[in-house]
Amino acid sequence: LISKKKYKKEDLIEAGLAFYSGLRVVDFFRNRVMFPLFDHRDNVVGFSGRAIDENQPAGGYGGKYINTRDTIVYHKGSMFFGLNTAKEEIKKLDKAIIVEGELDVISCFSVGIKNVVAVKGTALTENQVTLISRFTNNVCLCFDQDEAGYEATKRSLPVLEKKGINITTCI
């Protein structure tokens, strides 16, 4: 982006696409599959990256998934991956299936399940619950069957219950 497109280093850093490592500017999403993050109005507001090799996360930093840092337009706890494409199906079926990651959403879409969104982070926030409640009051939590998924479910339930959302879980 710097040499070919002539972007300024400072703009890439401010946008959360790069960071300084010493005097060098380094790609924040190196060695990752990148996903654009759209808000529910179809605006690109950030990016997420999934490590290609889970045992060697991208140069030794970050977890399996990393997101653009919070910016003026992107707040991880205020959005879902895929809501821009799933919202009509969520309204039609009056149910949202909430999964953990972008690849979970893409896999569901590929087999015709289109009312699926991914949480950005490890559990639902009040802002995310408020957002999804604009489209349905019925949510199915479908987190991974591991310790992290179990903990995310545990932390998400009180937030959903506080808003009066009907909750089911997927197994």
Can you walk through the features of this model?
- The chain has 171 residues and is an alpha/beta fold.
- It has five helices and ten strands.
- It has helices spanning 9-14, 83-93, 102-110, 126-132, 147-162, and strands spanning 18-21, 24-27, 32-38, 44-51, 65-67, 80-81, 96-99, 116-119, 138-141, 166-169.
- A five-stranded mixed beta sheet has the order 6-8-7-9-10, sandwiched between helices. Strands 3-4-5 form a three-stranded antiparallel beta sheet, with no helix packed on it. It has a two-stranded antiparallel sheet with strand order 1-2.
- The longest helix has 16 residues, at 147-162.
- The mean pLDDT is 89.
Provide a compact summary of the structure.
The chain is an alpha/beta fold. It contains 5 helices and 10 strands.
SSE blueprint and pairings:
Layout: H1 9-14, E1 18-21, E2 24-27, E3 32-38, E4 44-51, E5 65-67, E6 80-81, H2 83-93, E7 96-99, H3 102-110, E8 116-119, H4 126-132, E9 138-141, H5 147-162, E10 166-169
Parallel strand pairs: 7-8, 7-9, 9-10
Antiparallel strand pairs: 1-2, 3-4, 4-5, 6-8
